[in-house]
Amino acid sequence: MAPRAIPPILASGLAQLLTLLLVQVAVLAGSLSGPPPALATEAITTPLTQRSDAWPQWSLPAPLEQPGRRDLTYPAWFAGTWQVHSDAPDYTVRFGANGSGAIVGDRAFNAQAIGSALLGAQLQGVRNDPANPNRQLALLSPQPGLTLTLESTVVGRRQQQPTATSFEADELALQVVHGPGDPRISRVETLSRYALQADGRITADQWQATYPSPALGLKAQATNTAHNQLVLERVNLPSPGPGSDPAS
Predict the structure, then answer these.
(1) Bridge partners (DSSP) listed for residue 51
(2) Is 80 exceeded by the pLDDT of residue 61?
(3) 112-133: per-residue pLDDT in tens?
C-alpha cells in the first residue's frame, strides 16, 4: 500500500500555525478594541523599527543573527503566568528564570497551551530539545491514521535592549513537517513589540511573514503576512495551602 500523502492545504496550514506557536505566544489572527498605546521608543530608528515599518514588504535575508543555543530573554516584568486575550480562544502562557537567572518563555508549555486552544485533540504534544532551547517538536494528528511531526528551530534572532516599559524581538524559525512523503520545509518570521501598561497588562503588536524553503534559495520574498495584536493579563496563582508540597 502506498503511503498516505499529506494534503497540501492541511500540511501547510498546520505547519504554519504550530510554527507561529513555537516562536513565542504568536496568534493566527486577532485585534484589540483599539491599537495599543504608542511606545516612547518608536521614534528611535533601530533595525527592528525599520523592519516593522517595511512590513508587509518583507524579504530574506533579514537583519538577524544566528542564536546558536542562546534562548530569547525577556525583561523582568515578563516573569509569571499570563492569560492571553485576542480574537482567538484565550490561553495561558508563562515565563520564568532559567539556570542563569534570565527570564525566558516556557516554549513547550506556551505552544501546547495555544495549540490545544486552537487545535484541540489534533495537537498531541509539544516537547523541547533538551540540548537546544531554540528547537521544539510538535506531534500532530490532523485526521485518523495520519500523524505528523513539526520540527521548529529558531535560526535567526534580534532583540532590542528592553526598557522599563517596552521590549522588541524578531525571530526567524525554520519549520519542517515530517510525515508520509517528502518533508515540507518553510520559514516563518515573527517580530513582536511589547508594552507594559500602567495597570500591569502587557499589550503587543506582532508582524509575521512566511517564506518558502531555503532549498529554493536563501533570498526570498514573503508569501503570506499577518499583523496581530494581543493582551496579556497576569494570572494570580493561589498560594500553596498549609502543609502542601510545592513539588507535587
Answers:
(1) none
(2) yes
(3) 998 898 889 999 999 999 999 9
- 57 Cβ contact list (under 8 Å, min separation 6): 222
In sequence order, the 6+-apart residues with CB closer than 8 A to the CB of 135 are 128, 129, 151, 152, 153, 154
Nearest partner of 75 among 158, 166, 157, judged by Cα: 166
* Mean pLDDT of the 15-41 span: 37
The per-residue pLDDT for 86 is: 87
Q: With pLDDT > 90 as the criterion, what percentage of the chain qualifies? A: 68
The span from the CA of 243 to the CA of 84, in Å, is 32
Instruction: Flag whether the pTM goes above 0.70.
Output: yes
Note the Cα 183 to chain centre separation in Å: 22
Give the pLDDT score at 138.
94
